[in-house]
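Notes from hallway chat w/ T.B., transcribed later so I don't forget. T.B. wanted the structure written out for a chain they're using in a teaching module, and asked if we could keep both sequence and structure tokens in one place. Agreed to drop them here.
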Amino acid sequence: MKPTSSYKQTQHFLAFLLYLSISFINGQTKSISFSYNKNSLKKGIQQLVDDYQLSLIYPSNLEDKEISAKCNNCELDSALTLLLYNTNYSWEKIKEQYTIYRIDSGPYAITGQIIDNVTNETVPYANVYIPSLDMGTISNNEGIFSLSGIESRICTVYVSYIGYEPQEKPIYFSKNQQSSIEIFLKQKIIYSKNIFIRGRSREFMSLTNEPGKISFSPKHISTLPTIGEVDIFRSLQLLPGIHQGLGGTAELYIRGGRPDQNLIIVDGMPIYQKTHMFGFLSSIQAKAVKDVQVYKGGYPARFGGKTSGLIQITNRVGNNVSPHVRLYTNMTINSLQLELPISSRGSFIVTARHSNNIASTQLYKSVKDFITGDDNFNLISVSANATQSTTYSPEFTFKDLNTVLSYLISPKNRISLTYTNGADIVNEERKFYGFETILEYDSTSINEDTEWSNQGTILNWSYYLNPNWQTKFSIAKTGFNSLYNSRQINDANNIDKLPLQSFDEKNVFFEDLFTVRQIIKSISNHNLEIGLNKSLLSSDYKTNRTLEDNSEKLNMKQNGYLETLYIQDNWSIINKVKLNIGLRNTYYSKTTRNYFTPRFSISFKILPTIKLETSYGKYNQFVHQFNSPISTRGTQGTWLISSGRIPVVNSTSSHSSLFWQDPDYDVSFSYYQRNSSGQYDFGRYISPIPILSNPNNTEYISTTDSTGTEKTGGGEIFIRRKNRQINGWIAYQFNNTKYSFDDINNGQFFNADHDITHELKTVFITSILDYDVTATWSYSSGRVYTHPSEINKTNDFQIIFNPGARNKERLNPVHHLDISISKKYVINHLQLDMGLSIYNIYNRKNVSHKRYNPYASDSIISDVIMLGITPTLFVQASL
């Protein structure tokens, strides 16, 4: 390989450092001078021995290598170092005897860890690169990396990560073929020459070397516009390929997929309750997160079980240098974070939040009116005439707890324990007067109590035998609980307030997960990974209905397990072509079948600034979320596993992108497709009972009445400016998602309820007078709906769409401008972060969707307006 100019500069720089350091070492007192320009190494050494009468032993078969070196009045130690620099020889001194010996010519290997220089936390998924050799890698979730197959004895390692200054580390291999290093990253700050404007580089994302993948950092997430709470998922919605949540919610619709089709992983553990407040806020605490890796499609064989996007979240492990406390509040939540070091080997961090009394704030009132306006009881209220009246008294709260314990047992053994818990608690009291035709009694009270919660624990153990052999073990238990009870009371004639009708519903879903991964890097240009997973799935749905003297109890249980073996290889075919190929096979006990899902992706660097990538893969989904517009509180979000009438979803996905990147700009064009079969239409059912009560539920049956296919396709254009005083990006995406069911319009495809054809998002980022300023503007197609003339209602108040008319219409486009202004204050050891965020600053009356009200006597369809102008003020104090 011909040395580059930077490579030669690195040689000279290392030679100079070595010369300065060795000059302070006590060597022989006689001074040595020489000047060689492409001279023979053997002759040069012999000349020094003859001229200075040195006690020096060297091999008789010394390689006849040309050297260029110069030394004036050097001590012998320095002279030998400079003479042998960039050769395959080194020296050592035993008493007064100097010996020159041959060292191994490689290949060499580097292992290391990327560390935050302030908190001493590890930095996951940092880019590690050797430009002179055109080779690189990324650190794992523990900040550890390894590079093998290095042919040069000297090189410089460059490390970069979102929001940090790039660092470089010169490496010089002497006796050992392996080098172990630590690289500390500093927060990136860019100052301008303008007196009035200071630009701080706030980076949120970077495009990776893997097809369809984006790295996202929550480091500056509090400076983005938000509604009420700093939110990871809402921030991800600003990225290309991720649609803004329907109606302004935090749900993630990735490239036309539904939220339940996404795989959300926290420290290796899948999470099943992804949002709070009926989808309005994500359940992931931004302050607990260190890094987010987003796969919009084409993720590798290591991951499986879902058919759309993958969100891989790495939690913070805490400061292991000194204790820290952070307090946060705004009009929606209060939050506390505590970090404690454990000796010098570990750390413990706990992050907790609890909602304020949301019914007492205007923001929560707006959220409540928007989100809960579509349930059946509120639709009855909307239909009230002059002789009828209703009252509604809700209390909504949510809470989250996230803890991480990390400990370094030895340099080769690391463990971490993550625990997460979150819950929504909803208490609702409704009173109805004059609705006896619907509720049977003239004066009726209905009291509802609902709790949705998730909990998860995972133990991770990493063993690093050597740079080329790493083993990781994980044991996890995660799940979702839904508890619901409803009591209907006749207020007029029920003196004892005994319920005339009651419902009790309970769903307990959990997954026990066992994983072992073996990472092998001993094969040149290959990064091989082999893994075994076993997942135990269980869904227990119970319902107890009491109507005066009659009662009905049902208990539906589902149990199954998945056994998965996968192998994947990151292969650098040549420096410009990288291939990721993987094979994944899953055995599912409920179907007694094996599901083989190959994955393939390749990237080709056409020019240093231009890259082409493509991917293809097959995917399966074995767990499904029951979401229906006519369901009760107790059945919303229920998780079911494929069995009986619910088939396994089979999906194929492809993706292609063209990138152009330079230090200041990123431009990309992407195209994607996804086709899947086995999509179940849960929207037809009020609860899972009719589905799970199939008498042949223990056998695998694929019926066609509620099972259909999905077809998704689209493209993305992304333009980004970075590393300047004014940064940001523009993202446009086109998408079309359609479904087909045999009994709807003779199997013809129709637009999915969540289909959004066009979406344009712009993000503007700068700093003015020490204030961080961010503005976002988004524009998207309106949601689809069915024309009122194509809708009928039955005697039991159900909505029926005419054949062939479903989702033929589309609402007006939705657009809004959001801004955020924040500033950091430092008072002694106290740091204050304060900010103001305003959503929909020009108060656009956007229509989220159409509301269908079967209880209305006239038009049964009306508009649902999204939030208008909504300010949020936050304060965070850190010690």
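Follow-up for T.B.: The first helix runs from residue 5 to 22. Might be a good example for the class.
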